[in-house]
Structures are given as C-alpha cells and as structure tokens.
Amino acid sequence: MTGPAVRNTANRGRVSRGRRAAVALGLSVALALGAITAPASAIESTVVQTPATSAPDGKTRLGTPAPTKESLRADGPYTVETQSMTGSQTPSGFAEAQFTWPVGVPDGPRPTVVLMPGFVGEPKTLNWLVKRLASHGYAVALIEPPTRIDGPAARAKALRTALPWLISESPLAPRIDQKRVALFGFSMGGGGVIDTASAPTVPVKAVVAAFPWNTRKTFPSLSAPTLVLAGQGDGVAVPEWFAIPIYKGITGTSDKAFAHVSNAHHTLVETPDPRISEMTMAWLGRFLLDDTRYNAFICPGPTTGTDYHAYEANCS
C-alpha cells in the first residue's frame, strides 16, 4: 500500500551502526550505575484467554473495514499533517513537541497516542510509527524529554508535565479526545511510559512499551492495559533483564501482553517493522478504540515462529 502523504516532516533515515553503538555504550554505563536484578526466566508462548464478546460501550461500528493482519502492518487511508515546536516554544519541563493528525476526517476530538523516544533518540527516529498511527485516524503527539540522555524517571516526569498542556493548551488540543489517550515509548521511553501510567493522576487507556529499559521492575499501580514488546536479539535492553521482569511486574491490570519479536535488535523499533506495527495497532484498536474486532490479534494473538519468538497474553 502506498504510504500517506505527509506535510512538513523531516526525512527519515535508517539508524547507523554508530548510533546503535552509542546507544549500547550509553545504556551500558547506565546499567553499571543502576541496580539490575538477575535475569528472569524466559517467557514461553502461553495465553490466558477470556475474550470479550461485545464492545464495552455497546456500540456497533458500521462503515469501518474489519482489521486484517495486512492492514495492521500498513499505512492507513488518510494523509497526515505535522506541526513541530522547539524546546523554546514549549513549557518548561520538556523539550521539543511534534503533533501529527489525519487529514480528511470529521472535525473534533480523536483518539490520541503520545510517544516518547529512546535514549539519545531524536524525534525523527519514531516518525514512521507517528505517520502510521495518524494515517489510521489517530491524533499523535511526540514529546522530547529535557535532554536526550534523560533516564526513564526523567522521561516520565516530562510526560506528566506535558500531558495537561497537550490536552488543554497545545496546538493539538482541539483534536485530542481526553478520555481516549494512550502512551507509546521505546527503550528508556518505554520505561518512562510505564512509570507515567503508574501514577494515579495520569488517566490513560492503553500503554505500549517497546523494548523497554527501566531498573524498576514492579508496577502494582499500573492499571491501564499494557503491551510489552521485546527483541530476541536485543543486546541493549536484554529481555531477560528488562522486558520480561517488567511484564511480570505489571500486576495492577488484568489486560496485558508480551510479544517477543524474532531476530530483532534494539533499534529495530526506529525503522518500519511490520510486527511492531501489527501489535501496536492491534493493542490500541482494542483498548483505545474499545473495538473488540481486534481481539483476534491479541487473544489468542500471533503464532510463534518466524515473526514472533514467544507470545503471552492475559485478556479480559
């Protein structure tokens, strides 16, 4: 499928080996400074399934095509528009902000996804996913922490500062449905969004933590449905040290899933990947849109093999 037309966006490039090495070095230093638990046992491919049979709001969704594996892995039908603000233009507490939304949809609030990039990551590193989400009808905001070397706690603080401004004063505010907001984060941004959603004053409907890095491993107050993605070949945020214990430490919600992506290095999230797209779009479709047609993609979810090394889900 042809990608969406985009206005006012920077060109996207693949991550260089030098950038990957810089990330690995920086996180290795952080590892040395932080307390790291012993590797958790690997997650096997098991599913606890109690699927819903009707949408929570009781509405029938007419006029929208049923999702397919192919549609979840491709750009949607809408062109998108982007606006950026520099750190000098945003309130104190965070840096750059980028807003992207679909063109040609009815005016009014949209389900919204707020993204946080990874350690030393520029906003453009997640542009492919930003555009994909917006092309499927979501309003999207990408927030930068005060510095690109900030850890998960600082990134969570930046998000907690940015969210009230986003929904009330930002250029994207008229397009944001305050009751339908989700968080997506990569690497230290993944650790940051889990920290953010654990705060009782941050009401979010869904969380996606991609290849998360966080020395904190228990999240009893995280009640939003949460998807944790991990890379089988990730030598930076090693799944046995990070994604797996983080997933097991999420005990405040009955809706959570773990997808272990086969043959995936750490910076895979920063390049267009059909599996990252498929799982993210399915999770948001189910829990941000409350559309039970997405259930089949998360419960029972994908089969293990070429694309997924392991998968586990607990769904209500």
UniProtKB/TrEMBL annotation:
UniProt key word Hydrolase: yes
InterPro entries per record: AB_hydrolase_fold, FrsA_esterase, PET_hydrolase/cutinase-like
N-terminal signal peptide: 1-42
Gene Ontology molecular function: carboxylic ester hydrolase activity
UniProt entry keywords in alphabetical sequence: Hydrolase, Signal
SUPFAM superfamilies (UniProt xref): alpha/beta-Hydrolases
Keyword set includes Hydrolase: yes
Chain residue ranges for the region called Disordered: 45-73
Highest taxon of the lineage: Bacteria
PET hydrolase/cutinase-like domain span: 64-316
Family: Belongs to the AB hydrolase superfamily.
Protein name: PET hydrolase/cutinase-like domain-containing protein
The organism of origin for this protein: Austwickia chelonae NBRC 105200
Taxonomic lineage of the native organism: Bacteria, Bacillati, Actinomycetota, Actinomycetes, Micrococcales
